[in-house]
Amino acid sequence: MKLIHTSNAPEAIGPYSQGVIVNNMFYSSGQIALTPEGNLAGDDVATQTHQVFANLKAVLEEAGASLDTVIKTTVFLKDMDDFPEVNEIYGGYFETHKPARSCVEVSKLPKDVKIEIEVIALVK
Q1: How far apart are CA 107 and CA 84, in angstroms?
Q2: Distance (Å, whole) CA 27 – CA 4
Q3: How many CB atoms lie within 10 A of CB 107?
Q4: Burial 14-35 (b: 16+ CB within 10 A, else e)
Q5: Is residue 40 helix, strand or coil?
Q6: Which of 16, 57, 82, 88 has CB 3.0 to 4.6 Å from 45, enough for a Cys bridge?
Q7: Catalytic amino acids?
Q8: What angle do CA 113, 105, 82 make, to 5 degrees?
Q9: Which element (helix H / strand E) includes 92?
Q10: Coil/strand/helix, residue 63
Q11: C-beta separation of 76 from 115 below 8 A
């Protein structure tokens, strides 16, 4: 196993890694809408979703992967009423490549954010 860490995404807020590579597979921890400096990126779901993708791109790059090599995503939403807006933004990041996806509503997320996304990807 190889633990992944980049300063281009927020530090883990608990006893876990930003991600782990096993063989040629990358497993990310859930990324929330914190900037690399640890500040919350906006209070609306659109701003938070874009920050989550910035964080995912950073940890994927550090792992030698990219959004194009993502196999599976899991999206956690604080409010499923945000799904249409999140889905539209999500589609902008996965225009031609469409990984498998699960999306669930949860009662609360770390730092009281509106969205968290984790990914599984192939390492190039």
Answers
A1: 18
A2: 10
A3: 5
A4: eeebbbbbeeeebbbbbbbbbe
A5: strand
A6: 82
A7: 103
A8: 65
A9: helix 83-93
A10: helix
A11: yes
Buried b vs exposed e over 82-99: b needs ≥16 C-beta within 10 Å? Answer: beeebeebbeebeeeeee
User: Which structure tokens are listed for 103?
Assistant: 């999306």
Token readout for 62 is 């550090």
The H or E element containing residue 79 is none
In this structure, are residues 90 and 49 in contact, taking their beta carbons and an 8 Å threshold?
A: yes
pLDDT at 124: 87
- Residues 72-105 pLDDT 10s: 999 999 999 999 999 999 999 999 999 999 999 9
Report the SS3 class of residue 103. strand
Name residues of the chain where pLDDT drops below 70: none
> Cβ(117)–Cβ(58) under 8 Å?
no
Residue 10 tokens, joined: 């927020």
Q: Are the CB atoms for 26 and 4 separated by under 8 Å? A: yes
- Copy the structure tokens of residue 48: 């938070």
